Amino acid sequence: xxxVATINESVYRETVEELRKHIQIIExxxxxxxxxxxxxxxxxSKEYNTLAEESIDIQALCQIALHAQGDARRAxxxxxxSIVDNALTPESALTAxxxxxxxxxxxxILFECESAIQKSINASDPQGSIFYVSLALxxxxxxxxVARRILxxxxxxxxxxxxxxxxxxxxCYKSVQHLKSNKQSWSVLAETAIYLSTQPKNNSTxxxxxxxxxxxxxxxxxxxxxxxxxxxxxxxxQFILILGTKRKQETRMIISI
Length: 257
Fold this sequence. Notes:
The chain is mostly helical. The protein has helices spanning 11-14, 17-20, 33-46, 58-68, 72-82, 90-122, 126-138, 143-158, 164-178, 186-197, 204-221, and strands at residues 83-84, 87-88, 225-228, 238-244, 250-256. Strands 3-4-5 form a 3-stranded antiparallel sheet, covered by helices on one side. Strands 1-2 form a two-stranded antiparallel ribbon. A hairpin with a 2-residue loop joins β1 (83-84) and β2 (87-88). α6 crosses α10 (186-197) and α8 (143-158) packs parallel to α10 (186-197). This is Recombination factor protein RarA. It comes from Hexamita inflata. Residues 124-222 form the MgsA AAA+ ATPase C-terminal domain.
């Protein structure tokens, strides 16, 4: 059996040495400008062989190669958009590059809308949450993506102030999923966003898990191994993570709730 995995982070930093001894690491780098140019010329000769040689502008190819930023798939997509009326010109290439940039900006806007939904709910602003839910849906954001952000908000920002909020947000997500993200699901999103906006807020669990993960990473770097998860004496008001080294020394981290 062969297992193939990809990672965007440094494999030498994110994986342990023992694992690296048993795997083959293949590092993929961005293509050079020359590689992209060869790729484009090869694509033209095979996929766009109907183009006349005089209709292909080298300057346009250079523009595409430059804006591809070492990404072959992006270069081929720009090439396809740049061929207009069976010709490749600097003007058509520039138009394609601008269109690709607008698509990227549109994606960024949708992400910002989802972020604004969470911030509005966290600020206990029902009007703001409804506005940004409406804006995200109007811009073409997938309702399921909005429901996912609302679900995350119920845990991160409301948390223990009202644990039932997580159940309601989860029901919202399942309802949107059941309705197949069509317009009938919009009212479900609106109702849930308003409800969460009116609830008290408590992000202690979100902060606690982040502190716990950071502490465990630091302890692992020091070759400490966990002995106990919590100390029952103080379970009512705090969690105590006890870590021991190979010398049986104890290091305690207290996470208040």
